[in-house]
Amino acid sequence: VTTDAVGRQVTTAVPFYISNTLLKPGLFDYSLSLGKIREDYGLKNFSYGKFASAADARYGVNDWFTVEGRTELSSDLQLLGAGSVLKLANLGVLSASFSQSKADKSMSEDRAKDLEGNQYTVGYSYNRNRFGFSINHNQRDDEYTDLSRLQYSNLISVNSNKSLTANTYFATKNSGTFGVGYINTKANDFKNR
Fold first, then answer.
1. CA–CA distances in Å: residue 92 to residues 20, 127, 137
2. What's the pLDDT score for residue 96?
3. How far, in Å, CA of 24 to CA of 64, rounded?
4. What SS3 state is found at 114?
5. Which of 68, 69, 74, 81 is closest to 21 using CA atoms?
6. 141-170: per-residue pLDDT in tens?
7. Closest by alpha carbon to 146, among 92, 87, 99?
8. How far is residue 4's CA from residue 99's CA, in Å, rounded to a whole number?
9. CA-derived radius of gyration, the chain
10. Which residues pair with 62 in a beta bridge?
């Protein structure tokens, strides 16, 4: 509501969309993690391997666009990734990312060469006062490796190579929030829903 010099008031409705994945223009967000890789999780206490680091950075370019980057490093692994988040006016948020990794051949006993792979992720989300919906697709090559996949004394764990997740929720005024989700994962030839 604005009031001019003679007292006339004008009410203007301005539509806007808020997302927790977008950053304010000019805002820079980052994180840096340093330490040793946890091994034998759930089997042994204080079992740590080689030194590793991971860094994330995000920058709000403007009200509707945020860019992001990620790197992971150890003596056996190098990973570099980039992504973006795009606001589609009042229609939701679209996100996409791509990363590439290279792991030393010593990370797998059955390989004669270094492991090189890619991963990409695309997603869409829409949220309003009492309703929300999101869908995400993630796909990675068999030889894609990141710090989370290094387990059990340098063997690569079996994680999903492809996943699709979708969920929606509806909030009522008095009865709480109700939601439903769908998860479909595929690891090599094994599929779960």
1. 12, 7, 16
2. 98
3. 9
4. coil
5. 68
6. 888 888 887 654 344 445 668 999 999 999
7. 99
8. 54
9. 22
10. 65
Of all helices (H) and strands (E), which one includes residue 132?
strand 131-140
3 state DSSP class of 149: helix
State the amino acid at position 153 in one-letter form: S
Which CATH code for domain 18-192? 2.40.160.10
Q: 182-191: which pairs have CB atoms within 8 A and are 24 or more residues apart?
A: 185/160, 186/160, 186/161, 186/162, 187/158, 187/159, 187/160, 187/161, 188/142, 188/158, 188/161
pTM of the complete model: 0.79
Residue of higher predicted confidence among 147 and 69: 69
DSSP 2-60: EE-TTS-EE---------TTSPPTT-EEEEEEEEEEE-STTT-SS-EEEEEEEEEEEEE
Cα-based distances in Å from 11 to 2, 14, 18, 191: 7, 10, 21, 55
Q: Which residues pair with 166 in a beta bridge?
A: 135, 182
Rounded CA separation 3/9 (Å): 4
Helix (H, G, I), strand (E, B) or coil at 189: coil
**3-state SS assignment for residue 147:** helix
